[in-house]
Write a structure and sequence with these properties.
Elements: H1 2-21, E1 31-34, H2 40-51, E2 55-60, H3 63-72, E3 78-81, H4 87-101, H5 103-106, H6 108-115, H7 120-124, H8 145-158, H9 161-167, H10 169-174
Parallel strand pairs: 1-2, 2-3
Bound molecules: NADP nicotinamide-adenine-dinucleotide phosphate.
Length: 176
């Protein structure tokens, strides 16, 4: 009995060790598409993966951000302007990626864009793994208090009188 258990535990650790050793091969042939590359995590990831030799397709919100990123990286990294809140911007970026990645990548992007959120469970059947990385608190643009209160003020200014009544002035003050 104990021998059997020890063998199982040993097998488990052997499998873990084997999985840990797996690395993606031929990095220089691999494309990676990253959004929000003007600053923060997206920018850092784009620069790191470019250093490792991957073909980085970096989506930035602004031309200024894209230009700065290109200045800091190799000629292999390419940028595109993408506002993730605008359908036409997403379509244009998708076409841009298709032109670079070719047919091999065309199935993945529309699937990810249109189906992923609706059908994560179904996708697992096809061996597609969705990894969500939840970082802790990092001091980036997203956590900048001035930016946050500016965005709250903007949302408040645009809100209808009904919404303002429901939330009340105190709600706005609580975010400052
Ligand atoms: N920092 C944290 O503690 C933390 C923790 C958990 C999760 N996250 C998540 O991590 C992601 C990256 O955030 P971050 O911390 O790296 O902040 P960040 O430095 O502000 O990065 C966000 C990037 O997205 C760009 N962006 C803003 N609106 C966009 C839009 N509509 N379309 C396309 N790009 C847009 C920003 O461009 P501009 O610079 O030009 O505005 C910026 O480059 C966010 O989804 C955030 O919620 C962050």
């Amino acid at each position: 009995m104990w021998l059997y258990l020890a063998a199982l535990v040993g097998l488990y650790y052997l499998l873990c060790w084997y999985r840990e050793r797996q690395v993606v091969s031929d990095l220089r042939d691999k494309y990676v598409f990253i959004t929000g590359c003007d600053s923060g995590f997206g920018n850092l990831l784009a620069r790191q993966l470019d250093l490792r030799g991957l073909r980085v397709l970096a989506a930035c919100l602004t031309e200024k951000g894209a230009e700065q990123l290109r200045d800091q990286t190799s000629d292999r990294l390419e940028t595109v302007i993408l506002d993730v809140t605008k359908t036409e911007s997403i379509s244009a970026a998708t076409e841009w990626v298709k032109e670079r990645v070719g047919d091999g990548g065309t199935a993945q992007i529309p699937v990810c864009a249109s189906l992923l959120l609706l059908s994560m469970k179904e996708l697992s059947y096809f061996g597609v793994k969705v990894a969500v990385i939840e970082p802790g608190f990092f001091n980036t643009g997203v956590t900048n208090s001035e930016k946050i209160s500016g965005a709250m003020q903007e949302a408040w200014d645009q809100a209808s009188p009904e919404i303002k009544e429901i939330y009340g002035e105190k709600f706005l003050a609580s975010g400052e």
